[in-house]
Amino acid sequence: MSLIDSFKLVLAPPHPEARPFLLASGATTLVTRFLGKKLSCPLLRHAGTASGLFFGFCLYFFRDPERTTPARSDVAVAPADGRVVSVEKIAPPAELGMGTAPVWRIATFLSVLDVHINRMPAAGTVTRIAYHPGQFLNASLDKASELNERNALSLTLPDGRMMAVVQIAGLIARRIVCSVSEGAKMEAGERFGLIRFGSRTDLYLPPGVEPLVSVGQTMVGGETVMARL
Prior knowledge:
Heterodimer of a large membrane-associated beta subunit and a small pyruvoyl-containing alpha subunit. The protein is α+β, with helices and mostly antiparallel strands and about 230 residues long. Helix content is about 25%, strand content about 30%.
């Protein structure tokens, strides 16, 4: 990644989900710093500094950069930025009704420093969305797929095959945002939600499709090719 690309990534405009956080922390920063100076109160000045830092963190965390998705219909791209922590065969989430036959699952862990926008891995129709309440374990743990709060989507490809994407809350994350509904026709790389703050995204490939990535690799949501369909 070039220096210019790095700046573009850091300075990307925030997702609309950031607005309440930015408004609250921005207002708190202005008020506490003004009162701290007016009243000569170090405690208020420190509070203003802390809220200002949180404002900057929110700008960074919610950044929503543009991505260039491969112009190919025969590949599945990464649904999120982050590091691959698991590649294994396992049955899709039961709540999606996709059967019990094991398929390849690629789990990507997103730290608080990663872009948290979720993107569609391929073009298709969202046929089912199932929310499942749960715990908030460290999302890098394998058992997070089963025990943590999650939101699962099944995607039917134009040829009728199915794949799934699961948004999983993590140790710090307390809100999963899904901006699409059942029946929505999506393009590869198109945004469909986000998870705040720190999370995991699992991709279940169609039967017979092999992954092209391995544990430890870094993914770029909407760009990195995970499999050939």
